[in-house]
Write a structure and sequence with these properties.
The chain has 2 domains: 182 residues, no CATH class; 166 residues, no CATH class. It is 54% helix and 16% strand. It is built from 13 helices and 12 strands. The longest helix is centred in the last third of the chain and has 44 residues. The radius of gyration is 31 Å and the shape is elongated. It starts with a helix and ends with a helix. The relative contact order is 0.19.
């Protein structure tokens, strides 16, 4: 057995003899480790959820938004007036590689059927949207070209459940902003319904014909333009051509063409800032726990002065004493962290089972947690270990 192994075993025996104190020291680490693992796991799960929602736009779909995004800076004016026009879709369709371009406008208000009400997102668009984003219909179909001037609508499965329950929605009248529409289709995506963002996702949308909304709404603005490109076309390579075509009418500050990757990048950047901020706050618990370990280890050094003196007089070196006490601090921290990881796993399971939040505990997160615990134990165990290793053996033996 190596000298290091012997000293580690000695440390474990000492902790077993003082197990109550060791447990109290480990509780702080458990709390701090649990907080970090839960936060990072929830953030990872939310990122996966967001990715699924964005990828749900469909394959090879670009989005034109009414504002300039410089990656690295956030534009607070993105929620303002849009300078995009329906005629811009015709311009974009002339670009080589573009299959289709359609307007996408958010309509305010709500929807009701009789006395039942729902608050989905109301969107005005064109029939080709249902081909651009591969849509599953559990009832009916999307509206067709000849229905663009009629008051018809397609509702998502969440809105349908709130308004009609298990009954069929096809042909049923619904009132949107005081005007009656006829339901012609119901969309569904089981995975999206279980998402944290389901209430703002595609399965909680009500689709209205853009030309009809335009006919009853003066000065209707176009909030987005959805562009479907040919499968063999590289999205990023097409952006300059699309921006050039829009630039014939608009200034550069009035639009941006984004790929799904860029949309995800913006969301991830905001989420990572929040995640690191919250992780930094919860790390205070680990710092406090580390100070607790240091205090307990210093008390242990003072109580075991004679033991240290005897070990030194019987051949133990300063290095042996240092390793023993440092190992005790690290073991306390790692055990507390391991319990914290198990507790976090249990809580994440409950969240996934009973809430829309779907945390993801990955091997990387577990490795991070264990690494942090080892680091906390090593850092805060240094001072007690150094103090113990520097004790004079003669003075230590004489100590009461």
């Amino acid at each position: 057995m190596s000298i290091v192994s012997a000293n580690v075993l000695s440390a474990l025996r000492s902790l077993r003899e003082q197990w109550q104190r060791a447990i109290l020291s480990a509780v702080g680490i458990m709390v701090g480790c649990s907080a970090i693992v839960l936060l990072v796991s929830i953030a990872t799960g939310v990122q996966a959820d967001v990715k699924g929602q964005v990828e749900g736009l469909g394959v090879n779909v670009l989005v034109v938004i009414p504002g300039r995004i410089d990656f690295g800076n956030f534009n607070p004016n993105l929620g303002g007036m849009s300078y995009l026009k329906p005629t811009d879709t015709e311009r974009l369709e002339t670009v080589k590689g573009v299959v289709d371009a359609i307007p996408f406008t958010f309509v305010g208000g709500g929807i009701r059927s009789g006395k039942k009400r729902a608050n989905p997102l109301l969107v005005a668009t064109e029939p080709s949207w249902f081909n651009m984003r591969k849509t599953t219909f559990i009832e009916g179909r999307g509206f067709e070209a000849e229905e663009l001037s009629k008051p018809v609508c397609v509702i998502g499965s969440i809105a349908k459940r709130e308004l009609f329950g298990d009954a069929s929605a096809i042909g049923q009248p619904v009132v949107v902003n005081g005007k009656t529409y006829r339901v012609v289709g119901v969309t569904q995506d089981k995975k999206a319904e279980e998402s944290l963002f389901s209430m703002g996702g595609f399965e909680n949308l009500v689709y209205l014909p853009y030309p009809f909304i335009q006919s009853i709404t003066p000065n209707l603005q176009t909030d987005r333009i959805m562009i479907q490109i040919e499968p063999e076309t590289e999205p990023k390579a097409l952006i300059k051509s699309l921006e050039g075509k829009l630039g014939e009418r608009l200034s550069q500050e009035q639009y941006s063409v984004l790929t799904q990757e860029q949309i995800l990048g913006l969301v991830y950047k905001l989420m990572s800032i929040l995640t690191w901020l919250l992780t930094g706050l919860t790390s205070i618990a680990l710092f406090v726990a580390g100070v607790g370990i240091m205090a307990v280890m210093l008390m242990s050094v003072n109580e075991r002065t004679k033991e240290i003196g005897i070990r030194k007089t019987t051949g133990a070196t300063r290095r042996d004493i240092f390793i023993q006490f440092l190992a005790e601090a690290v073991v306390i921290s790692v055990v507390g962290g391991a319990v914290g990881i198990v507790f976090s796993w249990f809580v994440c399971g409950l969240l996934a089972q009973y809430t829309p939040v779907k945390p993801m505990i990955t091997p990387e997160i577990i490795g991070l947690a264990i690494g942090v615990c080892v680091g906390v134990g090593a850092i805060f165990g240094l001072i007690p270990a150094i103090k113990a290793s520097k004790m004079d053996p003669v003075a230590a033996i004489r100590a009461e």
